[in-house]
Amino acid sequence: MPEIDEVSAFGQPSPPESPAGQAVALSSGNALFNKYELGKLLGCGAFAKVYHGRDIESGQSVAVKVINKNRLNDNVNLMGNIKREISIMSRLRHPYIVKLLEVMATRTKIYFVLEFVKGGELFAKVAKGRFSEDLSRKYFQQLISAVSYCHSRGVFHRDLKPENMLVDENGDLKVSDFGLSAITEQVRPDGLLHTLCGTPAYVAPEILTRRGYDGARIDVWSCGVVLFVLTAGFLPFNDPNLMNMYRKIYKGEFRCPKWMSPDLKRFLSRLLDTNPNTRITINEIEHDPWFSKGYTQLKCHETEDLCNVVKEEQDRKLLDLNAFDIISFSSGLDLSGLFQEKHRPAEFVERFTAEEQPEKVIEKVEEVVNAEHGGVRLRRKKDCGLELDGHNGNYVVQLEVYRLTDNLVVVEVKREPGDVDMFSDLWKDKIRPLIVRQPEQQVAGD
C-alpha cells in the first residue's frame, strides 16, 4: 500500500507546528486521516510531539504522537531502535501497560495513536509528597504485574521510573515509553545484554561495570528504586556530582527513612541488592510478605483473553506497519543512554567506562597526541584532566577521568562548538581504542 500524500491525507496542507499548550486546528472536515481530531499539545521531545486527540467516530480520547521523519533520516541507529519499539508495543496487551492502538504515516510524518491516560505521570503525583505504604504497595503490585508480563514475552523495559508510568482515571498504573526496551533476540551468546542505557539514578550497578547484564534483573533493581521513591519521597541514590552518585549505586549505599516499616526495609534491601545473582527475582517478589498483602495476581487466561479480543484488529494494523515500513518514537528514548547529558548536543559530550587507572588514561592520551604533528596543544588540569586545543583553536576538547572503583574509571569527553570533525578522527581511530583496548558496542543497540 503506498504512503498517503500529505495534502490528500488532510484535505489541505498540514497546519504549522503549534506552540506548547495550544491546539492544532483540525475540525472533523479536515481531521487527521478523517479519523482523529487533534487538540492540546501534551508534550514534545527532539523528534516527536504528543497531542491529545479524539476519535471522531467513537468520541474516545487518544494520545497522538507525531514524528518528523526528516529528523530521523540521518540516524540509522535511532531508526532501528524506533522500529523495534513498534514491534515491542504491538505484542504487549496488559491492563497496566499503555496500548498502541494504531499507526499511520504520510511522506514526512508518522502518527502513533496511543491509549490516552488521563491522570498524568506518576512522578507528578509523588512529587507532591510521598505515598503511604498501602498506596505504594498498590502501584508496586501493578508495576510488577506489568513487568512480569513483559519478561514472560521476552521484553525488558530497561528504563523504569515514575516519569515513564502514568495513572488512569481509575487510579491504576500504566507503564509507558518502551524506547530503550530490549528483547531476548538481542541477548548475546554469553546470555547477557550489553548496551549502556537507562536513567542514571535508576540504573543497576552491573550496567556500570560494562561486562553485560541480565535484562530481567536490572528491571527488578529499577523497580526497587521506584518503590523507594514512592514511599520515601526522594531517591535512594542521589548526589549533585554524577560520579559520586555512580559510586553510591555501585556500592549500594542508601538509607531507609525511619517511617518505613521493618518489612518494607527488608524488602527494599533485597530489591536493591548490588549482586544481581542474589537479588530477589520476580517470582520471589510475588511471595514476599510485604508485597503479597492484598495482592491478586492476574491469571494467564485473563491476559490471553484480552489478547484474543484485539488480535484480529492488531493483525490488520501490523499489515499497515509493514506496508509503510514505519518507525516510532518514545519520549523517553535516549540513545546515548547512561553516559549522555540531555541538555547538551549529542556530538559534544561522551562518557564511557574503562578498566584502567586514571593517571594511566591521561598518559595514554598524551602519548598519542604528542606523536601527532597536527598542531594539537595539551594542558594538564587538576584532578586528572586534560584540555586539548587543536588546529589553531578550531576546536577545544575537555577530557576528565573519574575513579568509579579500584580498577574502573569513567572517561568524560566534552567537545566545545567548532570544527569537531578535525578531532573526531584522532579520537575515534587512535585515542579511544587505546583507552578502551577493545571495540565498544554502539550505544544504539545490543
UniProtKB/TrEMBL annotation:
Annotated binding of ATP, by residue: 65
CDD domains cross-referenced by the UniProt entry: CIPK_C
Recorded GO MF terms: ATP binding; protein serine kinase activity; protein serine/threonine kinase activity
Keyword tags: ATP-binding, Kinase, Manganese, Nucleotide-binding, Serine/threonine-protein kinase, Transferase
Cited InterPro entries: Kinase-like_dom_sf, NAF/FISL_domain, NAF_dom, Prot_kinase_dom, Protein_kinase_ATP_BS, Ser/Thr_kinase_AS
Superkingdom of the organism of origin: Eukaryota
Region annotation (Disordered) ranges: 1-21
Residues in NAF domain copies: 316-340
Biological process terms in GO annotation: signal transduction
Domain Protein kinase positions: 36-291
EC number(s) from the headed UniProt entry: 2.7.11.1
Recorded catalytic activity of this chain's protein: L-threonyl-[protein] + ATP = O-phospho-L-threonyl-[protein] + ADP + H(+); L-seryl-[protein] + ATP = O-phospho-L-seryl-[protein] + ADP + H(+)
Keyword Kinase among UniProt keywords: yes
Keyword Glycoprotein: no
EC category: transferase
Homology family: Belongs to the protein kinase superfamily. CAMK Ser/Thr protein kinase family. SNF1 subfamily.
Protein name: non-specific serine/threonine protein kinase
